[in-house]
Amino acid sequence: xxxxxxxxxxxxxxxxxxxxxxxxxxxxxxxxxxxxxxxxxxxxxxxxxxxxxxxxxxxxxxxxxxxxxxxxxxxxxxxxxxxxxxxxxxxxxxxxxxxxxxxxxxxxxxxxxxxxxxxxxxxxxxxxxxxxxxxxxxxxxxxxxxxxxxxxxxxxxxxxxxxxxxxxxxxxxxxxxxxxxxxxxxxxxxxxxxxxxxxxxxxxxxxxxxxxxxxxxxxxxxxxxxxxxxxxxxxxxxxx
Length: 240
What we know:
Elements: E1 3-7, E2 14-15, H1 19-32, H2 47-57, H3 67-79, H4 82-88, E3 90-91, H5 95-102, E4 108-112, H6 118-127, H7 148-163, E5 172-176, H8 179-188, E6 191-195, H9 202-208, E7 212-214, H10 220-231
Parallel strand pairs: 1-4, 1-5, 5-6, 6-7
Antiparallel strand pairs: 2-3
Helix pairs in contact: 1-2, 1-3, 5-10, 7-8
């Protein structure tokens, strides 16, 4: 089957041990020369949204800092905290096995769809050995688009260009843990499999549009089955 699977990063594949919020605070300090007095509001949003809101929360105009400056500040801030990430963060149970299991499915392409800019997504997953098995040419990342749902089309276009397969809502699956992740998939044009590792309850994820909700990634066979079910054509009323 020709399927594009897009993995969320934080709280889906890894726990970052609070380093993400510290990274935004660090990026703010790099940009402004002063320590952050407010905490970043994350949860399934993109880097430009998160950092822009943090800047605005301090009474500053985010437009003063162009995208290149913000990307550079975020990259530097996480690089300075990678050892802290390794010490306090972790790969979530089953993450490596789930990626490996999906890799056995012919025609299935895996990449990331995350609000993190690409460099930081690579650092986060690479710190825990989860970068291998994902096609980093085909993802959607912070600064590719300002809003999370728009990243789905970015990833689909990249995968279509590379593999010559039309990736659409019928054969794209986003795997995430927050309502914002699910909403991004539904609005962006993907099926969604959700996991309960981000502190959001099953009802909320289902009501947001997840086709399947798993407790976590520890059962790799269940993850693959959920992806297959998500892209399986619906049965018509006459059973055809």
